[in-house]
Specification:
The protein has nine helices and 13 strands. The strands form four sheets. A seven-stranded parallel beta sheet has the order 3-2-1-4-5-6-11, with helices on both faces. Strands 7-10 form a two-stranded parallel ribbon. A two-stranded parallel ribbon has the order 8-13. Helix 1 packs across helix 6, helix 3 packs parallel to helix 4 and helix 5 packs parallel to helix 7. The longest helix has 22 residues. It is globular and about 55 Å long.
């Protein structure tokens, strides 16, 4: 009997975690999730073993993780960044706790989901070897996690990969995120405040993100690498809002109602040559095709 590969998804009840778990099940992998909360009904998968644990509590985490896992993917962390202490602990202390455990049991690959925010106000396109200058507590915690992982890769050959993610989107995302907010507002034909929409942002479909994770896990060249995951083709926010309005035939955006931060970068996007070279990954879902299917999901189609 063939032994099934075991994968642990930290944050497996979240948006990306759900889609990754679904794909892992299709591949015949045995999936375990660790999260601080139970999955929402919309993201509950029968074949996933759900464990409840706060990754910032090392004693509890140690008790929680009994099995050896071939693959570990860390998508965990406090989503509401308004609580700075919780944000820092979940996105940095959580990583150090996980690595204490997995330095002993040694998975084949450990993926840390990093953030484009680690680059801070650096000019785009962002390159992985650029000197980072993060601004928010969240981004600073992510960069500290990256530095920690790179250090233990160099010292102990810990099989980590850091994927610096840009803006993921797609079906079943929480409705407090940018695209779901816009889509729901337009579907309900409501007024909603927004900026002037002159920013350019890089959006990558969740299916492409999952492809990048899978390719990184099974790649022989990915260990110890920091890899940007985005499209490299930023879209203007105003154009996106107007596209959603056309498709939904509704919505009244109040452009300029939300003022931009003084330090806000107008154009943010990555160079993705490294992803193409190291893990043979390119995003396959065109933005407007992906956006249309996402609109259909929130429209109940």
């Amino acid at each position: 009997m063939k032994i099934r590969k075991k994968i642990l998804i930290v944050g497996g009840t979240g948006f990306i975690g759900y889609h990754l778990a679904k794909r892992a099940i299709k591949r015949g992998w045995q999936v375990t999730s660790i999260s601080s909360r139970k999955p929402k009904k919309i993201r509950n998968l029968k074949k996933v073993k759900y464990l409840l644990c706060d990754i910032t509590n090392f004693k509890l985490l140690k008790k929680c993780i009994h099995s050896k896992f071939k693959y570990v993917v860390n998508l965990g962390g406090y989503v509401d960044h308004s609580n700075k202490k919780k944000t820092f602990k979940s996105h940095y202390i959580g990583v150090t706790n996980l690595t204490k455990i997995f330095l002993r049991t040694r998975p084949v690959a450990f993926i840390q989901m990093g953030s484009s925010g680690e680059y801070g106000n650096l000019r785009s396109p962002h390159h992985e070897n650029s000197k980072c200058n993060p601004k928010s507590v969240y981004a600073k915690a992510k960069l500290l996690s990256t530095k920690h992982l790179v250090k233990i890769y160099k010292e102990d050959n810990f099989p980590c990969i850091i994927l610096r993610l840009y803006l993921a989107y797609g079906p079943k995302q929480d409705t407090n995120r940018f695209l779901p907010v816009i889509i729901k507002g337009c579907i309900k034909d409501k007024k909603f405040p927004c900026s002037n929409g002159n920013q350019f942002r890089d959006f990558v479909h969740v299916n492409d993100v999952v492809n990048a994770i899978i390719k990184s896990l099974i790649s022989k060249k990915s260990k110890g690498q920091i890899i940007n995951i985005g499209t490299g083709k930023p879209k203007k926010i105003r154009s996106i809002i107007n596209y959603v309005r056309r498709i939904t035939k509704g919505g009244h955006p109040q452009f300029g109602k939300i003022k931009l931060r003084k330090d806000e970068i107008l154009k943010t996007y990555p160079n993705i040559k490294k992803a193409k070279k190291i893990i043979k990954w390119i995003p396959k879902i065109s933005f407007y095709k992906g956006l249309k299917s996402t609109i259909n999901f929130y429209n109940g189609k």
